Amino acid sequence: MPRQQPPVPPADGAEPQPEDGSTSPGPDEGHRHGSRNVLVRSASAAGLRTGKVVNGTGRRIRRATAAEGAGESGLAKLIELHALNSFGDMLITVALASTIFFSVPTGEARGRVALYLLITMAPFALLAPVIGPLLDRLPHGRRAAMAMSMLVRAVLAWTMAGTVSTGGLALYPEALGVLVASKAYGVVRSVVVPRLLPPQLSLVKANSRVTLAGLLATGLAAPLGAGLHLIGPGWPLRGAFLVFVIGTLMAFHLPHKVDSAKGEQRAVLHAEDHPAGHHLGLGHHPAPAGPPPPKATLRTVGPSVILALRAMAALRWLVGFLVMFLAFLLRDDPVGGLAPTATLGIVAVAAGTGNALGSVLGSWLRTRGSEATVTAMLLLATGAAVAATLWYGLVTVALVAGAAGVAASLSKLALDALIQRDVPEAVRTSAFARSETLLQLCWVAGGAVGILLPLNGALGLTVAAAVVGLALLVTVRSLFKVGLRGPAARPRVA
Prior knowledge:
about 70% helix, 2 strands
């Protein structure tokens, strides 16, 4: 055997090396390894804690949306889908507002918004009446329609991310597409809720939950969109793209009964004269020999729905008017001695709080008092507008914004309850689609008036008070004819 050589002693000051040739870590390297391990363990622990918080929050949200039978009926999935829809719409709103409104002087911003209304709202006013009849022809494709509205907005949001920084004309047709797709989703959602209604809930409470989920999502999306905008003007739109892609997939997970059209017939908004007995006989009597009976119309469902629809149309006009008019008025001439951004923020918070309060109150709304509720909300909005006219200031302006939010939110829930109570199931889905389209058009009309009026607070609020005041007089007159409880509920048609 060869004789083993003794180890060579290290040079002076050198660390001894292991016999296998590996190097032993020095004190600095060991310290670095220890620090790295501590960081890894800390990051891992933080990740676990974050995961637990997220999972716990998700479970609590799922329990809240699935309460009172909403999970079994599928309403919980619609609530979550609507929250996602509102989240994405808010991201797009932040991106457009930062480009069209906040990034330029007031005079130029007003011109841009007027151009936006002209290029997007005017075609929408022509397209919106088509949405309801078109969806009537797709009763078995409502999930696909909701998914398509999400997918269209996802594609347009990604496209707009490349053009939003310039604010050129190419942005406006894309914004029109987003608007039409969003309103189409809103119409479909309104007609889907009755299909997913659990036995434990009334329609007004179910709609209250859906609306409140959308408002909460909007509140979360606004600061996130503002933060993404700091990175770049296109980043809120890229975030919206991701949100709508997820929403497209979620739409197909709604229950199959969403696509059911059993017993449904079409309804139209205008009044028609019918032979005696026809307007009450839809589905209740054998079909007479001869020509088929005329289509059911919204007028045939009773005066209570007409009362609520007229009042809600005035309130939706008021909301559209205040959004446009106050946005420019407070930016050009803020009240209360505050900066324009602070004033706009206070008014926006007041309007959002009013919206949320109306949705919460909707859970306690008594269906039989819906006519009185709508009238009371119209009275509240009129009183707030008159007060803001007489005592123009930050408090009264915030008051009218909050009152309009409460009144519009709660009156919409009351209108939905009346449609559930008075409209036969054979035409209920179509009635929801037609009424929602009409209300969207009223918002457009109010916004157009708000952008065209001179920026004078007393003048603008006087116009608003006059419009809602006139609607209040008509509603009170109709209320005396209808009564607080309205006509007896009609038998449902399956």
